[in-house]
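Quick look at the format.
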Amino acid sequence: MEALEAGQTLFGESRVQEAKAKIPLLPGRARWHFIGHLQKNKIRQALALNFELLHGVDSLQTATEINRIAAEEGSRPRVLLEVNLAAESTKFGFPPEMLRSRMEEVFALDRLTIEGLMCLPPPVMKAEDAREYFVALRNLRDHLQTQYRIQLPELSMGMSGDFAVAVEEGSTLVRVGTAIFGERTGKAWKPQADSAFDD
């Protein structure tokens, strides 16, 4: 609420259950993006929350399932495709070569509006070390636009520790949470009994 009153209107949430608790507590002028890994069993709930944008669509299977449920629910979600640039086994995302060769299959999913790409670089010691991954995502986006004659205006890249470098390399959306709200405790968020929301 403090952030909203200070002029921040766009919020990202990485957990569907927490979004269900938080969204009703803020005024309608607050806008919401889903920025976490979207599990298949949470897709219907996420669509019901009417996020403006889903940042982490990470596979053709997930995209297909979102498309199917969106058709059932009568929605047309806006999405970003998550790319696993470093082929990390601990992270989700399309391999870049798959998007280069099979983007037509993704665009055939007629309920989805694909607006761009997203990445989470590997952990780095300093922000500058993430630059190569931001450059790689921008170059991949440019290649896909040329190859498939499409527009992918959004690049979601950069977080609290490296967002300035990401913006220099063309990021249109940065996911800055820790720098504003502090470190997560690991526990699920719950409204506090003495919260300012309780009136």
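Next, a different chain entirely:
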Amino acid sequence: MKALLLAAGFGTRLRPLTDTVPKCLVPIKGQPLLDIWLHQLDDAGCGPFLINTHYKSEQVDTYLATSAYRTRATLAYEPVLLGTAATLIAHLDFFDGEDGLLIHADNYCLADFGAFIQAHRERPAHCLMSMMTFRTDNPSSCGIVTLDENNIVVGFEEKQENPSGNLANGAIYILSAELLKNLKQGNSGITDFSTQVLPTLLKRIYAHETSAQLIDIGTPTAYAKANNLTAHDT
């Protein structure tokens, strides 16, 4: 399964670390974050990969040039950031009419992607996409989802002070070919996937919960947590 990895952001909350390195390349236990993503996905049989870049893109170019995944990954430089949905829409042809992964690659994730893909294949027929979810110990900092008895998303709470639960959107999605086709046909003015696409798909998103580590490393505290995980934690 092909994967589009969103890796172009500035990582402003992670400064001063990201003053010198793009967020997608910050090291987790010495390994660049993007390398962890590609390894996890490759192990699950996914690929090829398309990675958008912007901030300090030359460092991502240098990384990929010597990466084990250089023959399976393509970089798409954005002179001006397009936005998560606009980037997806600009590269719809990459998926060749098949289901595909859309990943916010600025998170640290050790999920079983094979299990996620299998869950997507077994999703209810009316669901146009699947979303990876996880339990968070800081729900006010996450997008919280509400599910029905069939694990279908029926509600969103975006970074509310007192959310109703702790099941969070992991910003990792499998989009059906039908949904990708719909986006190609009607996408005027759409730039953000979370605020402009997801709300239109309520009751048509299947949720798959991972028990593996999934950490938004956007803050120094969260980044330190990822680096301090033990083998037992992972």
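The CA atoms of residues 143 and 181 lie 26 Å apart.

See the schema section for token definitions.
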